[in-house]
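Aim 2 progress update. The chain analyzed this quarter is reproduced below.
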Amino acid sequence: MSKIAIVSASHRADSQSLRIAHHLNDEHLNGEANIVDLNEADLPLWDGSAATATVVAVQNTLQQADGFIFVIPEWHGMAPAGLKNLLLWCNATHLAHKPTLLVGVSASSGGAFVIAEMRGSGYKNSRLLYTPEHLLLRNVGTLWTGENSKSDTYLHERAAFAIDQLQTYITALAPQREYLCLRFKDYGNGMS
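Predicted structure tokens:
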């Protein structure tokens, strides 16, 4: 099975994003994914200085993964600053050419803006590969808690579909990743 890292992009304690990250791991990945909790990691703001031990630990976890699931809360129509900070600390060495499933999370009817934001940025220098499929988990406070079974069932099945696609992309691209990264010394940054 592929090594997947799930990034809970909320830097709030006891967040719904972290609950969803654990749910996806337990229900769809047999509990085998590594979860990076940005609240627990508490990464310092990137300022170009040397990485701290905490940053290096997160970088190593992501570098060892074959693919990612980013669980991203929508705050005021935006992705949290902590996720952008993570992408400044972790570059192509850790992330390049690894399929990534985006999961937008909202306490109400949002979530789509963070998907659009991540598809529009965050991949240029990291070279993340966002899968065509994504998930929008709305009214997340009651999702997968037994309070809304029709929605729970549909989104459970949709998550299984999206994660199966992610794993298919990982399997297909893993043998090519080393080749795809060969020219980074010549072209380290993506074009804008």
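The mean pLDDT is 95. Residues 124 and 191 are 7 Å apart (CA to CA). These observations will guide the mutagenesis experiments scheduled for the next reporting period.
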